[in-house]
Specification:
eight-stranded parallel beta barrel, 9 strands, 11% strand, globular, binds SN-glycerol-3-phosphate, binds calcium ion, PLC-like_Pdiesterase_TIM-brl, GP_PDE_dom
Length: 375
């Protein structure tokens, strides 16, 4: 079943008190998106085209760009010598050969490596082992990308220039990273629009006012981002659990007896409607133009979390004058479910599939683009 609530979910939602969402919106989602220069619905390529190529590498970002994604998404970290780069995990084990190159430091956080050291790592071969059906010889030896390099990729196709959707990842590990990011975006000319407006002659969102969106799970980092870049759109990411919304149940995954984390998260929900609303109000009051809630995926894979995009949740968020960009869904059944629930954009690992769903099918296939780029 998709696009509608199950009976139990509906009862749950009503029992949480979302049935009375409040006053009419001060600005509609469509008006807000236009004002901010953000496509609606937005196609946000999560760590690039990361279903088809190793996440956060040049291959993943070039394919996402050339497919026509609106945004290249990245998780921002800072090397020991101060270079900003893209990496999701806080250590290098899952997505590089750090255990071979630096066995004694394999568990160290990525920020304890210099950029020269990080650049020695192979950030592609793990993908070939994990996903043999999508493996390519050209992925072997792919490198971790600096922010500068991702910016160059975003600027590199004259026919389509995506924007950047940048998350301050674990910002407590990187004091001052918000100011560093501002300096670098400013230096590269990315804090002002490049001139053209969204429209027929535009070559992509990367030319307009909404060319950068900043995202974080942490309210303190949102405050810093707002201080450093007050005119750049920001999203507060939403999550139920540690450092996020207080959950209704305090039972841990280990105590729950659930077979997978996804099954556990599927049963997690905010403590009550007031807890959900508090996070929406905080997002607004701290300067965000929207929220990035988690989604429960039909396949319950390892990126399936609590369902924070129920229709009445999205309505409440819209009524408070905010957009909703949901993370992270990849299948048409879930694209339909979250769009029917009212979201304004989707983080996806499968930009090609989402573009097809929106009838913005790319001219070239993923495999053609990978070949064109020598992968
Ligand atoms: O940034 C949106 C989404 O990516 C947040 O979760 O863990 O995939 O970075 P994560
Ligand atoms: Ca992210």
């Amino acid at each position: 079943m998709h696009g509608t609530f199950t009976k139990s979910a509906l009862l749950l939602t009503l029992s949480m008190g979302f049935g009375h969402a409040g006053a009419a919106p001060s600005i509609s989602p469509a008006e807000l998106a236009t004002k901010e220069g953000i496509p609606r619905p937005a196609v946000i390529a999560h760590q690039g085209a990361s279903f088809d190529a190793p996440e956060s590498t040049a291959a993943a970002y070039k394919v996402a760009r050339d497919l026509g994604a609106d945004y290249l998404e990245l998780d921002l970290q800072r090397s020991k010598d101060g270079v900003l780069f893209a990496l999701h995990d806080d250590n290098l084990q899952r997505t590089t050969d750090v255990a071979t190159k630096f066995p004694e430091r394999k568990n160290s956080p990525a920020n304890e490596f210099t950029m020269a050291e990080l650049k020695t790592l192979d950030a592609g071969s793990w993908f070939n082992s994990a996903y043999p059906e999508r493996a390519r010889p050209g992925f072997v030896g792919l490198k971790i990308q600096t922010l500068d390099e991702v910016i160059k990729i975003a600027e590199g196709n004259p026919q389509h220039k995506p924007g950047l959707y940048i998350e301050t990842k674990e910002p407590k590990l990187f004091p001052g990273i918000e100011a560093d990011l501002k300096d670098q975006l400013q230096d590269k000319g990315w804090l002002s629009s490049a001139g053209s407006k969204l429209g027929k002659s535009n070559t992509g969102v990367g030319q307009g006012k909404g060319r950068v969106i900043l995202q974080t799970f942490e309210k303190d980092s949102l405050k810093e981002l707002q201080k450093e870049m007050p005119n750049t759109p920001k999203i507060l990411l939403l999550w139920v659990g540690e450092d996020g919304m207080e959950p209704k149940s305090k039972v841990t995954f280990a105590e729950s007896g659930e077979p997978t984390k996804a099954a556990y998260y599927a049963k997690q929900e905010p403590k009550d409607a007031a807890e959900f609303e508090k996070w929406i109000d905080d997002a607004k009051n701290l300067g965000a133009i929207g929220t990035g809630p988690s989604a429960q995926r039909t396949d319950l894979n390892d990126q399936s979390y609590s369902d924070l995009v129920k229709p009445e949740m999205n309505k409440l968020t819209h009524d408070k004058g905010l957009l909703v960009h949901v993370y992270t869904v990849d299948e048409p059944v879930d694209f339909k479910k979250v769009m029917d629930a009212g979201v304004d954009g989707i983080f996806t690992n499968r930009a090609a599939e989402l573009l097809k769903y929106y009838r913005r099918a790319p001219a070239s296939s993923v495999s053609q683009l990978l070949e064109d780029h020598g992968y």
